[in-house]
Specification:
8 helices; alpha+beta; Ribosomal Protein S5, domain 2; homodimer; 8-stranded mixed sheet
């Protein structure tokens, strides 16, 4: 039986165009607002879960190393929620990321999407449907909600566990948008996302942001539907600056921007404003720049980035696939 | 008579701890909010005004060069307001700054405070009183309102021309606070302050900022009264980040921060948080950092700044004197 109780899943991280920043409910990861993202083709987590009735404690490997710290505890607590609804037994979990740690790519997004997908499949019974699977991913890490589906995804923030789930807006084939992640720093953040969410909730600007967002999201979806990259880019870049603005003007101040981040932003804007290169950016809770452009200029943009940031690794992503079961087990 | 109709004034620029960003009335430079500043001892403008009944058009020299551009027009329009109330005659104006152009130190603040002071004195009659002189300076350039008085100054924003004036909070001797201006860039701004004020007024975060400010100003004045540098610094730094946040998340986005600005901010915060160095900063609509500390650590802070920014000029200021008449004419 043990061998049948094993499954491996692969899921992509995602980059948010409209950000998840501020939680309405910390127990269920209910966000203050809806968010919109692209699933990232080349930022992949592969996770094998093997349930074992004879195993008392979970055994967890991350990037081939057994972990016993807070990350392991978080995964076990998460598996408890699944066990509560199915069978109580220990699990062996092994997970690897295709992208280096500390790149500012949300490994918790791809990680919990893959973990949820693998954990249910490993029971060998029918898994929750896709929408319910987005809820399961969200219960592990908010932004994982958007990593279950392919292409372009909207997380309906909702008001409680049932109403907070993701929907696919359009598949990966709809638009050849690229996200060139420029890895400028691998230092850990001084203020964690979790702490950031708390600071955000009490930020005096948050109410005004929430009022603006519904119209902004509607405009973004319109630009996505028509592949209007200029409108899309302008909204996304403004959104990124707004969220960084809230981060850095909070109490305490979280200044994720680094000198190279600012330097590249000025370069990008000069390329766009002075030379007409159709390129925009977004940022997450970290210093690394997500450079956005359409496929037909991606090569040129990459060349330009290589010239101004020769030491930075660049991870190029297209709209990625959904979380899925694969055959190549890690255990 | 002509020789009697000449006067020279000297006035200092100022650095705002609570910022003037957003105008309620563009004709009279009425700000959205009260602001608080320190007059800067070493950022001085000296201006000579010579009224001449035989002169048809104004002749204006800036840093020893005759100017005929928009700056000259602005000065002539300003002199028109004074002439409208006194005598209609041309003026020779010569003005020099002690600090280099483009350092991000507001030369319009010291400039219009000196110009107003000299222009009235040159008539050889009784000048407006000090409060009225702050109004006159403000009519030339909003922040000049705070450059008429010595030490620490509050600009009561008011709602119209009469109610918008400055008051001294305390003299230069009250507190040996230093402002070390680290000149990181001399490039002209891509978005002018005037344009910035317009973007600020329609920024969705501005209402929340205005609601926060009265309590913030009260706390700042309390910290100033007790020379509580830690409380003072925390408020001032938060205020600076908030205004930068509004600038960069506006439409269009005004990103005055440069890579070196961010680099020094991270250094400063590390010195403070990791080594206990009592140092804070503020910023204006530009990339140059105003590093704030008390006199007893100014030497150490200056040494540290020199190590991390060896190429940057540092202009050290103490609380400065009021605008005043001097004898050394430029004409």
């Amino acid at each position: 039986m043990t061998d049948r109780m094993k499954a491996t899943a692969r899921a992509c991280s995602n980059i948010a165009f409209i950000k998840y920043w501020g939680k309405a409910d910390f127990d269920h990861n209910i966000p203050l607002n809806d968010s919109v993202s692209m699933t990232l083709s080349d930022a992949v987590t592969t996770t094998t879960v093997q349930w074992d009735p004879e195993l008392k404690d979970d055994v967890i490997y991350l990037n081939s190393e057994r972990i016993l710290d807070a990350r392991a505890l978080r995964i076990s607590r998460y598996l408890d929620r699944i066990r509560d609804q199915y069978y109580r037994m220990g699990a062996r979990v092994a997970s690897v990321n295709s992208f280096p740690a500390g790149t500012g790519i949300a490994s918790s997004a791809s990680g919990f999407a893959a973990l949820a997908t693998a954990a249910f499949a490993a029971f060998g019974e029918e898994s929750p449907d896709e929408t319910e699977m987005t809820r399961w991913a969200r219960r592990g890490s908010g932004s994982a909600c958007r990593s279950v589906q392919a292409g372009f995804v909207e997380w309906k923030g909702g008001t409680d566990d049932a109403s907070s789930y993701s929907e696919q807006l359009c598949g990966p084939g709809h638009w050849d948008l690229r996200d060139l992640v420029v890895v400028l720093s691998r230092k850990p953040k001084t203020i964690s996302s979790s702490e950031g969410h708390k600071i955000a909730v009490r930020h005096p600007f948050m109410a005004a942001r929430q009022e603006e967002l519904p119209a902004r999201i509607l405009s973004l979806k319109g630009a996505l539907a028509t592949r209007d990259v200029a409108t899309f880019g302008e909204i996304v870049e403004h959104e990124a600056m707004e969220v960084q603005a809230i981060m850095m003007s909070g109490r305490p101040s979280a200044l994720y921007l680094q000198p190279d981040t600012i330097r590249l932003i000025h370069h990008l804007r000069a390329w766009r404003d002075d030379e007409g290169v159709p390129v925009w950016f977004t940022l997450d809770a970290g210093p690394n720049l997500h450079v956005l452009c359409e496929g037909d200029v991606a090569f040129e943009v990459r060349e330009r980035l290589t010239i101004v940031a020769p030491d930075a690794e660049i991870l190029e992503n297209r709209p990625g696939p959904a979380a899925r079961i694969v055959d190549d087990h890690l255990l």
